[in-house]
Design a protein that fits this description.
84 residues, mainly alpha, 4 helices, 0% strand
Length: 84
């Protein structure tokens, strides 16, 4: 008898997404610091407003951070903070 998979819930999570978010945050942090900005303030401004102008284009940081949704970045930040 064939199994009906339409009733099953499948959970799929790619570990690489977490590493990608962490890598992007670290790269953006470094670029902001290199340009003399306060990286924490700039990242908070971006996360709250969604305005990419808070992120420098130096080192391709603005383009990198826009690869991920803000909720993905927040999830990574919370995971890292709460796991410690």
């Amino acid at each position: 008898m064939a199994r009906d998979y339409s009733e099953d819930t499948v959970m799929f999570k790619v570990q690489a997404e977490e590493n990608q978010a962490q890598d992007i945050l670290m790269t953006v942090y470094a670029a902001l610091k290199e340009k003399g900005y306060n990286p924490i303030n700039q990242l908070v401004g971006y996360l709250l407003s969604g305005d990419p102008a808070y992120i420098t284009s130096h080192g391709n940081a603005r383009s990198l951070i826009r690869r991920l949704e803000r909720d993905e970045l927040l999830e990574e930040l919370l995971r890292h903070y709460l796991d410690k």
